[in-house]
Design goal:
Layout lengths: L2 E5 L2 E6 L2 E3 L3 E12 L2 E13 L15 H8 L12
Antiparallel strand pairs: 1-2, 2-3, 4-5
Length: 85
């Protein structure tokens, strides 16, 4: 049975007296853009976990959010700027 403990980075899973942490954990990722026509939901509720030794491929149709997902995970999408008065 796995045991979990909390540290400054989040939940760590203790396996065989050794702490284990996923290389990447994303939960409920959302990236929306405001447009003149309204809100465009480029990424809405993506969750994934990548463990050591695993590979991940984002595949899908054109304009389905693959690039925005990757850019959001790497924090390369700029947050909206506050409005000017």
């Amino acid at each position: 049975m796995a045991k979990y403990c909390l540290d400054g980075l989040g939940w760590l899973k203790r396996e065989n007296k050794r702490l284990h942490m996923s290389l990447l954990e994303v939960e409920n990722l959302r990236t929306y853009f405001k447009t003149e026509a309204g809100e465009a939901r480029a990424v809405d509720g993506v969750s994934l976990t990548l463990e050591e030794g695993e590979s991940l491929a984002l595949v899908g149709e054109s304009a389905c959010g693959k690039s925005v997902t990757a850019l959001s995970i790497m924090r390369l999408i700029e947050p909206p700027r506050p409005p000017r008065i």
